[in-house]
Amino acid sequence: MNKISIIIQREYLSKVKKKSFLVMTLIAPVLMAALIIAPVLLTNYNDQEEKKIAVFDNSGSFKETIKNSDRFKFEFIKNDEIKSYKENLSKLPFDILLQIPKNPENKQIVMFSEKQPSVNVKLYISSVLEKELNSRRLKALGISDQMLGEATKSISLKTVKITETGKEETGSSELSLAVGFVLAIIIYMFIFIYGAQVMRSVIEEKTSRIVEIIVSSVKPFELMSGKIIGIALVALTQFALWGILTGIIIGIFFVGFDFDPASAMQTGQTSEIMLEQGFHGNTLVNSPAGDMLQAVFNMNWLSLIGSFIFFFIFGYLLYASLFASIGSAVDNETDSQQFTLPVTIPLILAFVAAQTIVEQPDGQIAFWFSIIPFTSPIIMPVRVALEAVSVWEMILSGILLIFAVIGTIGLAGKIYRTGILMYGKKVNYKEILKWVRIKG
Amino acid sequence: MTLLEAVDIHKNFDNHKALSGVSIKLNEGEVFGLLGPNGAGKTTLIRIITGITKPDEGKILFSGKEFKQDYIKKIGYLPEERGLYKKMKVGEQSIYFARLKGMSKNDAKIKLKYWFDKFDILMWWDKKVEELSKGMQQKVQFITTVLHEPEILIFDEPFSGFDPVNQNLIKKEILELKNKGASIIFSTHNMASVEQICDRAALINKSEKILDGTISEIKKQYKTEIYEIVFEGNFNKFGASLNAYYDILEITSKLGKTYVKVRLKNGAISSRLITDMLKYGKIISFNELIPSMDDIFIKLVENKPERATNE
Fold first, then answer.
1. B50/A216 Cβ within 8 A
2. Are residues A109 and A216 in the same domain?
3. What does residue A348 show for φ and ψ, rounded to 5 degrees?
4. Looking at per-residue confidence, does B53 or A202 come out higher?
5. Sheet containing B75-78, strands listed edge to edge, beginning at the edge strand earlier in sequence
6. What is the number of CB-based contacts under 8 A between chain A and chain B?
7. Which residue of B has its CA nearest to A433?
8. Is the pLDDT of residue B211 over 90?
9. Which CATH class name applies to B2-89+131-218?
10. Looking at the structure, do residues A77 and A201 belong to the same domain, yes or no?
11. Chain A residues near residue B72 by CB distance under 8 angstroms
């Protein structure tokens, strides 16, 4: 046991001291924080830039309906001046010229500007025009604005869960879905990245012929386990640092800039969605921020984090031991491909399946994928997040995974033991099977 | 006293025999040479002795007791295929290997400094291995092998990769370790070093042991009964009279001296040859041509038909 801890120490320190580790650990949180902060910033700052629009209304029917907003100032100009406006646009205080033809129903409305207008601007203007045109069409059919309002009033659906004790809890299926999916991505990525690192590390020791020096002091199995555990600790360290650093960066940003993220997102998103809704002014969004916060608190974090850690660790052990045995069997990384493919297939399959499973978390596919050990590390946390799994399923899946890990490590240990001392031989599956059968 | 014994070791890899019924003994305080051509099974035998691979049949005894994992501590093994972590610092790495052998960090440090100083590589302590020349890396590997002062040392091709100066250094160190009481198994192709260092030797060829004994025993066994003589006098007369006991293989004459090679036959002995020759002239020098280990090695190995082996 003591020797394993020495190996773990070396493996851990040599990986953590690497420059690439430092770079990844610092860059990733910056990127993640940027991903979270950028949309908030964009929706907020974009809105403040004012646009002046000169309208040449040939149809003469938009004067009433097109109104100034905070951001868009419209000015109606005499129709025949369009030519001189077009020629002198750069000198005029307008950003955009809007030419509405006499009969906008069958002729194109044209927007002139110096620069390509942003999508938001285009969306806003077209929605304003569309709204007017639509209401005109409806009026022609005999439907008044009021009737329309009554007919298209949208509802806001609030999801309330009743817990086993009969308490009512506000939940958010969007939130669960997002959390579940993020967990699946994290587990998938970490197994892939760190599994491959285990393999590379084994190949390094094999090709540089260090391995024989080491196995003259420790058992090959001890070396393999030490390596797998050491790299797992590196993964957990990186993961923890990412979490903490991302939190700090976002925290500093919002506190430092006196920014209220909830309201910013709320207003930003609401106005955006209102625009897209087009002609009827009703909005879909109206789960107030309070409800969302409530949902965050009501998620079953304890079982979620518990199952995440369990499936993360055992999923990693399962795949890392396979990667280690592949590394031991080959002489260089290029040769490893024929063996890594079958190992990664269930992993990729699970990840692809996760995308349908978030929609149907209690279906047949979801059930089997969360029970079978090679896919359960990715799928089970998703189902737990969506609260679509019963306790017996979790226990069964957990036990199966533990057995699979024990079996796989045993198998991998046998392949590893023979493989690391085997040089210059092109290995195939038949050969590896023979190694497994070697006794002792 | 026998310290280590491999008894009737058999080992097969899927389509070839690596070892069939090989037994060797290592006595306390001796240097034992394990000889044989490439692919003969030497490395496999060493791996079995060090517990890295298990034999199909046979057993390894330490002072008469069967092999246990604990014995690993008592062995220092320098493999033929050896390497170091390129990105790790020399000192750090040496401490790592020492700790894997069960030494404490401090102990390892003190002893390492002593050896590094002795080998004149102390200034490389904080350098990365990739900055070292191959010879220096070999020195580091040698040090990590002997550092924990094991009772048994096993060197597989210790001279490969060393220049002649460093070969001598290693040779000297091996003998010094022997004087300090270590028992050494030593596998090599370098026959000259076998004669200099080894007390006993075994030759393995094509998975079988074909020769075993002390160096002088082996040489006696393969002596050719050929003598090289420088003679002054009437050699032709001598040659004609006594060809029933001696074959004359070579004669050259230079400045009145005759240089001859003579092989004894029909049970003749060398003292008889001398008295016979003295009747016809004067003997200036008289030497027995003793076969070198090299000659014996080549003779024995080439006698058997070649068979494809791979490890």
1. yes
2. no
3. -65, -40
4. A202
5. B75-78, B152-156, B183-187, B31-35, B200-205, B208-214
6. 56
7. B14
8. no
9. alpha beta
10. no
11. 216-217
Question: Are both A200 and A344 inside the same structural domain?
Answer: yes
pLDDT digits (tens, 9 = 90+) for B283-292: 888 888 888 8
- How much is the ipTM here? 0.76
Nearest CA in chain A to B93: A10
Q: Name the domain boundary from A88, A120, A147.
A: A147
H helical segments located in B147-209: 164-179, 191-197
Q: How many residues does chain B have?
A: 311
Which residues of B fall within a CB distance of 8 Å from A212? 52, 79, 81-82
Do A328 and A214 form a contact (C-beta atoms < 8 A)? no
Scanning every residue of chain B, which has its alpha carbon at the shortest distance from the alpha carbon of A220? Answer: B52
CATH number of B224-288: 3.30.70
What is the residue range of A114's domain? 48-147
pLDDT, tens only, A165-184: 666 666 666 777 888 888 88
Residues 187-216 of A with CB under 8 A from B: 204, 208-210, 212-216
- CA A337 to chain B, closest CA, distance in angstroms equals 24
Out of A6, A209, A423, closest to residue B100 by CB: A6
Q: Where do the structural domains in chain B lie, given as residue ranges?
A: 2-89+131-218, 224-288
Does residue A11 lie in a domain region? no
Classified as helix, coil or strand, A113 is strand
Each residue's pLDDT tens digit, A80-133: 788 888 888 878 788 888 888 887 777 788 888 877 777 777 888 888 888 888
- B185 pLDDT band, cuts 50/70/90, is very high
Structural contact between residues B80 and B64, judged by C-beta atoms closer than 8 angstroms: no
Instruction: Record the pTM.
Output: 0.73
